[in-house]
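Example 4.3 (complexes with small molecules)
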Amino acid sequence: MKKIIVATGNEGKMDEIRQILQGEGITFASLKDENLQDVEIVEDGTTFEENAIIKARTISDLTGQMVLADDSGLEVDYLNGEPGIYSARYLGEDTSYRIKNNHIISLLEGVPDEQRTARFVCAIACAFPDGRTITVRGVIEGRIGYEEKGENGFGYDPIFYVPEFGCTTAELTPEQKNKVSHRGKALTKMYQELQKEGIV
Ligand code: ITT
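Answer. The structure with inosine 5'-triphosphate bound is encoded below.
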């Protein structure tokens, strides 16, 4: 069984990464699992890919191992793509998602369905000990709902409505979400890249 470090402190992401790639002969260790949760990572990139590389590279340089990282977020078209790469920091890192989600809903008050388009984006980076990096991206298109709905998932899931399913990603089961999500798509692509490298 191969162990791969994932440079994340977000338990919601970590759960999904484990579920999506489970059974592929790999186990995943989070920063906490490796006692690396206090390492300072300066996410000062201007794109999801740049930030994913910064996270993966920082931990790979420190450990000398191959490291994966996920940088993701919600882009709302009516808000010119915000919160985007600032999704975790939006309205303050420690602000609850109930407040963040309801704030976005209030900014879209009176905005009709066709202008409520949004997407979740996920960039996954893999940093190798020899200095190389690979990135892949996955996207899921949807719309901002009119109220929070659903208890599954994390973050902005309760306001992310997917027209094909007629519900939010917080109302999907974890299995359903992982099949269609930005993270599911990006991790499937990354798995294929790691297969090409002969790593998995
Ligand atoms: P790490 O950097 O430690 O991985 P983080 O939460 O700070 O954790 P990001 O900077 O990538 O990670 O921010 C991503 C944010 O985007 C996340 O905190 C959520 O608010 C949102 N997000 C990403 N994927 C999501 C998903 O599947 N469902 C709901 N919200 C999501």
